[in-house]
Amino acid sequence: MKPYLLIFIALFIASCSTDDTSINTGVADPTTKEYYPLTVGSYWVYDVYEADTSWTKLTLLQTDSVVVIKDTVINGSTYVLVRRSFFGDTFYRDSSGIIVQGDGIPVMSITPGITLLNNYTIPLDTAYTISLQMAMGDSLITVPAGQFQAKVAIGSVDSKESVAGWMKHRTYYSAFARNVGCIFQRALWLRSGGGFEYRLRRYSIK
After folding, report:
1. How far apart are CA 166 and CA 58, in angstroms?
2. What letter does residue 32 receive in the DSSP assignment?
3. What is the pTM of this model?
4. What is the number of domains present in the chain?
5. What average pLDDT is seen over the chain?
């Protein structure tokens, strides 16, 4: 079977807990769209690294541009078309504070500890399931574009079958900064340990 590429935005970092005490500072609470901007004309440029199966060797492969192109309607809901020069087009929208793709798969939320996926079977390869949950606190992350406090989504990929050479369990993470968007991405090959890593180099939010 083909080694389907499972695209997850990810980062191996430790989450830092934040104080949940409510204080009225006069500053508006953040919204999900501030961490995942979907305004037409916004763009991000990433350095793309290719990783070996152990993720100990990363080789700079190319740069990838990600651009919000336009609004579009899918099954009665308004999505935005996001175009990647490397992986092609994807549709996204904010669904009650959760960013979802055109197929309904959730990407992130700013709600601490919320479970976004629980043992979801991957349609392209039903031998695998994925789970995804937001961390309880923010983490400080450094990429070429700078250093950011980021919301972190913690996920896992698990194989339902026992086949020699397949990766049985892997953890993935995703990171989003306020008024910036995704600052780090990791794309994993399902049936091997390698993949691609994205690091934000520059961006423009409209």
Report:
1. 21
2. H
3. 0.82
4. 1
5. 82
